[in-house]
Amino acid sequence: MSDNGGGTDGGEKLMSRRDLLTAGLALGVGFLTREVWTGLPAQAAANGPTVAGLAEIPVLAPPVDRWQEDVIVVMQRDLQRALSKPVEKRHWGMVIDLQRCVGCQGCTISCINENKLPPGVVYRPVIERTSGTFPNVSKQFMPRPCMQCDNPPCVPVCPVGATHKRPDGIVDIDYNACIGCRICISACPYGARTFDWGEFYGDMVLGGPLPFEEVPSLEYGKVWVREAGKSPIDNTRKCTFCIDRLQRGLLPACTDTCFGRATYFGDLNDPAALVNRVRQNREVNLLKPEMGTLPNVYYLL
Amino acid sequence: MEVGNLADRRSSQLPVSPTSPPVVVAGVVVWLALFGFGLAGLYDRLAFGALNTSLGSYIPWGLWVSGYAWFSGLSSGCFFVSTLFYIFKVKQLQKVAPLALVLALITLIMGLLTIGFDLGHMNRAYRVFLHPNFRSVMAWVVWLYTAYFVLVIFETHFALRASLIHGRSLAGAAGATARLLTGGRREPLTGEEISRDNRKVRALAWIGIPLATVFTGGVGAEFATVAARDVWHTALYPILFLVGACLSGVALVTGLTAFFWPHRDDHWRMTVRLLGRIALGLLLLEVLLTWAELSIPMWFGVGQEYQELHYLLFGPYGWVFWIVQMGLGTLIPLILLVAGGGSCRATGWAGILVAVTFLATRLNLVMPGFFSPELSGLQYSYHDGRLLYSYVPSWPEWQLLAFVVALGVALYVIAVKTLPSLTGRDAA
């Protein structure tokens, strides 16, 4: 009798080893993929909730109506609500509406004023782009604060760990730890970090600071007087989303100042916050999303 | 015995040798000028920080970071030359191995000084040791070159101990230095002690090879790991830094041996020729890697890297690439090494040219990362002298670099004068 893996036994055809294995494999695959070919939803198979099982259907937050209430007032309420949560439950974010920004640079100036920024340091420049030629020309203005990335490339490069991602989402710099190596400036894909070289606006006329330059900045809730050899001079600096103002229940200076109401700020973890609601039905963009930095500044086109 | 060519015979009977009084006087005058020029830069840095540099927030690194890459590369390259004898037993290099080790130490000091001066807060540099962030490549490099520094100090000590003890009886500064460095030890080392020292040197050299390799590649990785700078963000950068280090180190040892070795005998001639051949091989490899570094990103004329490299090659500072790096630093040394007939003078000049112009090569690796704005239009968004995409090193920057070079030259002269074994002038 030849052996081909099968054979006959009293006239009945026996399964060959290969046939047995094939049938077993088919049964196994079929069992594992039964949800696909039986049509049972995976959720039902896992006993998850169904629409019929909900007590009530969720209601979406109302769309933004700018004519009802000044958005600054709305955002201040959002801020108070966020500040009542533990710090790790908040996640600060910003939305900039590029259709409302007129390029006045008021945000740039108010930031400089608020943080007492010296020459060479800018936290929020406004990038202007012009396209087309006259008469078919258009201008676009794009303020660029620190993106406060969720995967910030500037944090791991610091050799002394002077820059950190806070629980509330802001990337901060410990001025007293920074050694001034400036690798974080190289690492930022947005050019958001600048170095304090120790210059004063009064250098040309007085050889030193003008009176207004002796007013300390209050970044990170501390008092910083600019003196040679001491931080923040010879430190890297950047936009902080005005942590010190937030701690006092105030919106960031740029948000407060923007008369075009182009800048929104708030807690991204709060679905009712204006900073999330304004992104309804708008084209939302991020800068360099392909880099995977996960910025927390959104742009509405 | 190899018969030297006419140029070699002439160079060993030069009417003006490197150690003749007129040359020495000229050297001292030049050194004093360089040192004085450099002291002004040191004062400026200590008194005013980085205030008088041309650096800015859009171009935060410049001459000093490139200088650090230059010196640290010279150091690891010189170290690798020493291992050719201490590990790989290339007998021809026995007499220059201690010199190469001392050069590794001196150039490392120069590199550490340069990068230290570049820090905004030099006094906080200790924080890299007490509060390191080991996700940072820079923290790793600092730890690695510190370990390498300690290793080179110990290796140099064990390599020179026997001849230092011999040198205690020498007159003048040489004897004083030997007595200082050997403490109370008066008796010459026994054969057993010399063997033990040699074993320690070998062991340290073995450890030093991977250490120097990782440290040097790490300097390149400090740039390469930065994803925000397209032209840096390539796996080639650590290799470029490593090969460049080997080339510049070999070139430095070649140049100094060719011109400042007192005994110009056949052994010296063959040593210089061997070093020249090694330098030639490394130079050809460097040419290949430079071709790869430039041609790959630029081939199709598109991309961020293309813009930056185009500016490097054809912008206002293209001459730094074409004339300094390619001309003086590559083409002329190649001609001297290939067509120089093996002459020690030609080989020496090739080595000096490569070693000195390597600063330009490092500048041309560092600076292109800063040529383009991270966001288009950023350069026009805010007008400030520190927010520009152009950079020319200021006089204080050059001055501080001159100070470090002058210090290095002084350390080299002191080392050679007080350690006769470094240039084959053994006391025994």
Please summarize what this structure is.
The complex is a heterodimer of chains A (301) and B (428). Chain A has 301 residues and is of the alpha+beta class.
Written overview of the protein:
The complex is a heterodimer of chains A (301) and B (428). Chain A is an alpha+beta fold and 301 residues long. Helices cover 22% and strands 16% of the residues of chain A. Chain A contains 9 helices and 12 strands. In chain A, the strands form 5 sheets. Chain A has a 4-stranded mixed sheet with strand order 10-3-12-11. Chain B has one domain: Formate dehydrogenase/DMSO reductase domain (Formate dehydrogenase/DMSO reductase fold, Up-down Bundle), CATH 1.20.1630. The radius of gyration of chain B is 22 Å and the shape is globular. The two termini of chain B are 25 Å apart. Chains A and B meet through strand 4, helix 6 and strand 8 of A and helix 6 and helix 14 of B.
Rg from alpha-carbon coordinates of chain B:
22 Å
CATH architecture assignment name of chain A: 2-Layer Sandwich
Q: Structural class, from secondary structure content of chain B?
A: mainly alpha
> How much of the residues of chain A is beta strand, in percent?
15-25%
Specify which chain pair forms the largest interface.
A-B, 48 and 49 residues
CATH superfamily of chain B: Formate dehydrogenase/DMSO reductase domain
The gross shape of chain A turns out to be extended
* Count of folded domains of chain A: 1
**Roughly what percent helix of chain A?**
10-25%
Which structural class do you get from the secondary structure elements of chain A? alpha+beta
Our measurement of the CA-to-CA distance between the termini of chain B, rounded to an integer number of angstroms, reads 25 Å
Strand order of the largest sheet of chain A: 10-3-12-11
Q: Kindly provide the radius of gyration of chain A, computed on alpha-carbon positions and rounded to a whole number of angstroms.
A: 30 Å
CATH topology of chain B: Formate dehydrogenase/DMSO reductase fold
Average of pLDDT of chain B = 91
Q: Mean pLDDT of chain A, rounded to whole units?
A: 88
User: How many individual helices of chain A?
Assistant: 9
Identify the CATH class of chain A. Answer: Alpha Beta
CATH class of chain B: Mainly Alpha
